[in-house]
Amino acid sequence: MDHQSKRGAVEFVRVTKSYGTSVAVDGIDLKIPASTYCCLLGPSGCGKTTTLRMLAGHEAVTSGDILLDNANVTIRPPAKRGTAMMFQSYALFPHLTVAENVAFALRMKGMPKVQRLLKAQEMLEIVDLGPFGERRPAQLSGGQQQRVALARALITSPSILLLDEPLSALDPFLRLRVRGELRRLQKSLGISFVHVTHSQDEALALADVVVLMNAGKIEQKGTAEDLFSRPRTAFVARFIGAHNVIDLGDRAIAVRTDRTILGRAESESSNIREATVKTVEYAGSGFSVQLVDDRGSDLTALVPEADFRASPINEGERVAATWSSSDAHVLEGGAL
């Protein structure tokens, strides 16, 4: 496997997927550069998994084209696309050794046993499971099983690895560790990873490119910083979180919760909302104060711990939520 070449450039051209009258993916255009870690992000039913499955060839495209490394793969079967899919369930064979599991795709291609087991051992070294080749899957932890599934997907030298919610079955500590391993592996292999998740934290931590989907369309595509610091719409601001979406009448703005200041001063400024404190939660680096303003809108302020200790805020208290104009990001399409 050539670890230096850049592979896995993807292009969706007006791709639609319909099931009868129901449209799951609605005419999307999307370019993912070669050697990119891309996360397809969004709520359940937004079309992200259908998009991944169309790229894999496990779902037929209703209309449009999918290109992989400039080749049109729209009607190619999965095995002829140069993609590999890693499923949520890992789907390891319990009766085979770890090495035999990893070598399975090469066995199906008719590669002689000695060669395929040597190649499997090479892949196990890459995912730091070199000594585990003779074990059975049941003798491994969840995180180790996941790395076996990863090695098995990578053994065919794909141009692109497709991952369907790969971290959802892991506990939070292991999720962080495997997240780091996925990122390291993607960089060292030089291929693209396309990773479906509903976790904005996961997408922000992993991706070079985040594609946030909503109701079958792409709501915003960009770097993690783009989506977090410059959300395009109220949907993006709310889904990525850590923002208040505030309707100013003539326009809607997003203000980060850590830039939303709580005070007791009254003012005529438009950058102010009188509000009542609903709940106060300790959030590690500070306190998350949930508010409802006099228009019935929910707001959140993240108050640094030192500030909160100096001037505690209690449930039921009346406060003024304010923000600097320079911290207000104007959204498209009004307040949704």
Short description:
This protein is of the alpha+beta class and 336 residues long.
Structural features:
OB fold (Dihydrolipoamide Acetyltransferase, E2P), 6-stranded mixed sheet, 336 residues, alpha+beta, elongated, single chain, 10 helices, 27% helix, Rossmann fold
What does this structure look like?
This protein is an alpha+beta fold and 336 residues long. It has 2 domains: 10-229, 3-Layer(aba) Sandwich (Rossmann fold), CATH 3.40.50.300; 244-330, OB fold (Dihydrolipoamide Acetyltransferase, E2P). The protein is 27% helix and 32% strand. It is built from 10 helices and 18 strands. 37% of the residues are buried.
Task: Report on the biggest sheet.
Answer: 6 strands, mixed
Summed over residues and divided by their number, the pLDDT gives a mean of 91
Give the SSE string.
Answer: EEEHEEEHHHHEHEHEEHHEEEEEEHEE
C-alpha-based Rg, rounded: 24 Å
> Uncertain segments of ≥5 residues (pLDDT<50)?
none
Annotated CATH topology of the largest domain: Rossmann fold
According to CATH, the homologous superfamily of the largest domain is: P-loop containing nucleotide triphosphate hydrolases
Q: Using the coordinates above, name the CATH class of the largest domain.
A: Alpha Beta
- Per CATH, the architecture of the largest domain is 3-Layer(aba) Sandwich
* Spatial shape: elongated
Number of strands: 18
User: Distance N terminus to C terminus?
Assistant: 48 Å
| Percent range of helical residues | 25-40%
Which percent band covers the strand fraction? 25-35%
Tell me the strand order in the biggest sheet: 6-7-8-3-9-10
Q: How does the helix and strand content classify structurally?
A: alpha+beta
Number of domains: 2
Number of helices: 10
